[in-house]
Amino acid sequence: MPKFFIESWIYTSSLDVVREAETWKNSKQLEGNDLALFHAGQGELTELARSQVDVLNAILRKNLLKASYASSLTLLVCPVIIFQNDHRLR
């Protein structure tokens, strides 16, 4: 299974259900409590989708920070190694 498949699937499925439910609602005449329950369900699905974006964002930020730290370290260490190698050749 690809990395982050489950989070992506939950996000996409939640928003697809919200979109489909909206077209279903337009064909029905919901009023009062039924309409409130409908919107509450849509809100919960939208919140679920948002939580998956937050999970993905946290994972990606963590990985970017690691990559940024590694590249910063490389920029600091590589010139020293190159200088030492040049010095040895002379």
Structure explained in plain terms:
By secondary structure, the protein is mainly α. The protein has one domain. It contains 2 helices and no strands. Helix 1 (5-27) packs antiparallel against helix 2 (32-89). It is elongated and about 55 Å long.
**Domain module count:** 1
The low-confidence runs, each spanning 5 or more residues with pLDDT under 50, are 73-90
- Beta fraction of the residues? under 5%
The sequence of SSEs as H and E is HH
Biggest sheet, open or closed, and with what strands and sense?
none
Strands, total number? 0
**Quaternary structure of the protein:** single chain
Kindly report how far apart the N and C termini lie.
53 Å
Rg over C-alpha atoms, rounded to the nearest angstrom = 25 Å
Principal-axis shape: elongated
Give a quick summary of the entry.
By secondary structure, the chain is mainly alpha-helical. Helix content is 90%, strand content 0%. The chain has one domain.
